[in-house]
User: Which sequence fits this backbone?
């Protein structure tokens, strides 16, 4: 790890700058696959599944028999854990239900918002070595609480045409409507445009590789909406002399094992902690199955020593980490100063993996500095707000003249007239 | 207008399909301008202002003297109207303030959300024949209530290098921090990347032509976030036999005058109303200054006659209009059935222009069917939610085993270990 002691403000930039992600070289490939899915539907999906996932699928949809079969393929311990996680995620997201307020802005003018579920949503769960069943819970649970009618899930099958049983169990527990054995760009295309088998959805969620990210960006321009831009996962641990070096090292490693491009940052006010953490990292790293990935990720990571907590929080807000662990005394007080972060873990016992799996918060969060303007996935991500208004005759008299004056000055006389015909009507009836 | 009487469900598609907007032919031009702004900053901004807005600017920023000068260039009537509109917009958006709840999801595990302002936002206000000062109020007012530190506004100057005084007055009333005389793609680039004069912002709002829309899409992929995709403005009027034909005609025309690509739709259960509305349209159209635009827009518009209100609402939810006017008996009851719409106007006196200017609701709304997944601009658009969590020793015991089980099954052993070191610590201390 690269150690920066008391860097100047100019050097902060080095810490805060993320690797520039440029997927423009993939763009044409992705466009071609998407266009084929749009034109040919299931036929093209099957062709790409054969090409990319090396599997010849007859049915694209996971059958009820396969779902039932997964019951016996997953241990009771894991099933109980999934249920506990689901319960906590449910509780926290259910608490986010929007309570509308009616506001009389002027006499006779009443306005309100209502939160309404997005009818059809699509969830993408990547394949690869590790089955990300936790992400199934994180996306499908709030979708179900929001009241989405149709929750479609796409995930690549293995070469035997099977989906990991833990993913199926998580989908069952969280209430996914339909599961399809489709991966990559073809999955994004199928959900964005609809095919004979896959319903067209209105919003697509979930992580993926650069091809999937690029496909989501392309379909979001004119077909559907998406959750947020995606980049490599990140953690920043803020620690003072009260921190437990073994905990801090474990937290840094848990991020570093995600991938070689993971971003790991330790910011501390305690010089003596740095050596202790480095020692603990060596110790813990040696026994990790994914130690190669973790060591490569750590090579590009920073430890920053700063004078005081004000400086620490200034750097933190500039960096805008996806995950922020506050392993410090008075953590809750300092948390008040957080302006840019995805999810904040307060105090020595609040590790990121708690929130990654089972505390109840969502783990789909803004990376790459996007925490400056994006929220993580929450109940609202699966709903939209519709505004309503009602004017009475009194309302026409109260705001009518202002509306007509403004419309006329914007040279939109038909807008002015729509109010004028009502204004006249109300006056005539008086 | 194209009249469809009792169309089959298949024919609904014809009504619901929007014109496909393809700005890919502009993409390279837009990319070139953006790249120049990124590389050269103000110098490139000035060059494009000369090329596109035909003006040679010394200062890009509107001066205090110009702001003061605008006081005397805007009538007292318009200033009073702007203040009333601002007051109502403030009241409605202030009522949207999020109230966080702390939830104990499990013993010893507490989670909450907090809404935090986006520090720097950029507003784009197009130029052209009509000065869209109402949009200044609609964007800057909630930005100020949210607590954004910096609210930057870009708008193209005229050939004398001046900004319309009504735009300056609206900006002053709503509390814009800095106003720049920059239009088009160069404005989007300046706010996305920052220049010597223009601060880099984290989110860009506001309407614009196809070049501006394309520029917003491009910068949203890796630099900033944006409000929403933009398409031609739309209104759907739902009317029954209780509707006032003059009101309905005025509402349709007020949308039609926006541009030749505006979408206007009348859906009714009353056959006799159709003739009356068409007569009223002829009458009102003849005296409109923008009658040429309005007539061309009406040529591509539909009147749909349906059997009953259930059918009407099914079509409405399929169409997902930006603006929906319910000019019917029992309008508030029917409004309960709205699932997809940007903003809903309930009853005969609730005209769209009320919400366009002064009722308090926002007029920046999802078009092109995006009301199926997007909200209009609201207070939340200028804020993001950060999640927080705190685990106690008890929390570690409650969810620790589930976290470790799930992490291990996802083959993320460092994630498992981050919980395991804490679990051991708590057990050892018992």
Assistant:
């Amino acid at each position: 790890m690269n150690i920066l002691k008391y860097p100047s403000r100019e050097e902060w930039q080095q810490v805060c700058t993320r690797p520039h992600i440029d997927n423009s070289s993939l763009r044409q490939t992705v466009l071609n696959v998407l266009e084929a899915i749009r034109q040919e539907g299931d036929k093209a999906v099957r062709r790409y599944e054969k090409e990319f996932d090396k599997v010849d699928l007859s049915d694209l949809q996971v059958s009820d028999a396969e779902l039932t079969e997964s019951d016996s393929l997953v241990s009771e311990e894991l099933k109980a854990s999934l249920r506990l996680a689901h319960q906590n995620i449910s509780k926290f997201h259910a608490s986010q239900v929007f309570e509308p307020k009616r506001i009389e802005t002027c006499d006779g003018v009443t306005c309100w918002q209502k939160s309404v579920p997005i009818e059809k949503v699509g969830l993408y769960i990547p394949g690869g070595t590790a089955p990300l069943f936790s992400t199934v819970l994180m996306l499908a649970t709030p979708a179900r609480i929001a009241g989405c009618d149709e929750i479609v899930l796409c995930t690549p099958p293995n070469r035997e045409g099977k989906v990991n049983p833990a993913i199926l169990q998580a989908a069952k527990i969280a209430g996914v409507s339909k599961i399809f054995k489709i991966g990559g760009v073809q999955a994004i295309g199928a959900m964005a445009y609809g095919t004979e088998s896959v319903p067209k959805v209105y919003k697509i969620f979930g992580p993926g590789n650069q091809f999937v990210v690029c496909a989501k960006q392309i379909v979001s321009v004119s077909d559907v909406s998406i959750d947020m831009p995606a980049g490599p996962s990140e953690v920043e641990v803020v620690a003072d002399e009260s921190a437990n070096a073994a905990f801090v090292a474990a937290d840094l490693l848990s991020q570093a094992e995600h991938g070689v491009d993971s971003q790991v940052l330790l910011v501390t006010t305690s010089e003596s902690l740095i050596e202790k953490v480095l020692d603990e990292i060596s110790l813990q790293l040696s026994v990790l199955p994914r130690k190669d990935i973790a060591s490569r990720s750590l090579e590009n990571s920073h430890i920053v020593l700063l004078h005081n907590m004000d400086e620490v929080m200034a750097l933190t807000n500039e960096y805008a980490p996806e995950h922020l662990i506050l392993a410090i005394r008075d953590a809750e007080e300092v948390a008040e100063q957080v302006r840019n972060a995805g999810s904040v873990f307060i105090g020595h016992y609040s590790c990121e993996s708690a929130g990654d799996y089972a505390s109840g918060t969502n783990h789909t969060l803004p990376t790459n500095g996007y925490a400056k303007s994006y929220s993580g996935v929450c109940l609202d991500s699966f709903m939209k707000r519709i505004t309503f208004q009602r004017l009475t005759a009194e309302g026409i008299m109260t705001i009518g003249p202002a509306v007509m004056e403004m419309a006329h000055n914007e040279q939109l006389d038909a807008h002015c007239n729509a109010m004028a015909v009502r204004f006249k009507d109300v006056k005539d009836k008086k």
